[in-house]
Prior knowledge:
By secondary structure, the protein is an alpha+beta fold. 21% of the residues lie in helices and 42% in strands. The protein has one domain (9-132): Peptide Deformylase (Alpha-Beta Complex), CATH 3.90.45.10. The protein is built from 3 helices and 5 strands; from the N terminus they run H-H-E-E-E-E-E-H. Strands 1-2-3-4-5 form a 5-stranded antiparallel sheet. A hairpin with a 2-residue loop joins strand 2 and strand 3. The longest helix is centred in the first third of the chain and has 13 residues, at 24-36.
Amino acid sequence: MVKEIIRDPLFLQQKSEPATEADKQVIEDLLDTLKANQDRCVGMAANMIGVNKQIIVVAAGPFQFAMINPVITKKNGKYETEESCLSLDGSRPCIRYKEIEVDYLDQNFHKQHGKYSGFTAQIIQHEIQHFSGELI
């Protein structure tokens, strides 16, 4: 189900909790909401639809995928950039890494390890940052 995008900074600043299999509907809602906003959005974290769980969805070209409880385990190629967020107005400076490795659970709650670079790595880093409550 497509959900409304949360724009309340006080809500967005709350820390996210690890997701469980009881949160499967949140994954579907996030994917539906990402698809509905694909003209202006390339990734979403669960708090953007009102759920403080560690779930993100990413659009990488024609593919959309979910990452549950993702943890960046390796990063290199530090650089400075500016990003915007569907939940916030304007853009903000931030530090990102060109290449990252991530441990996570897939949509079926199977353990995965992925290596990402470029724009996909940047999207993943942005969405994971939502878990800390730090506004991008």
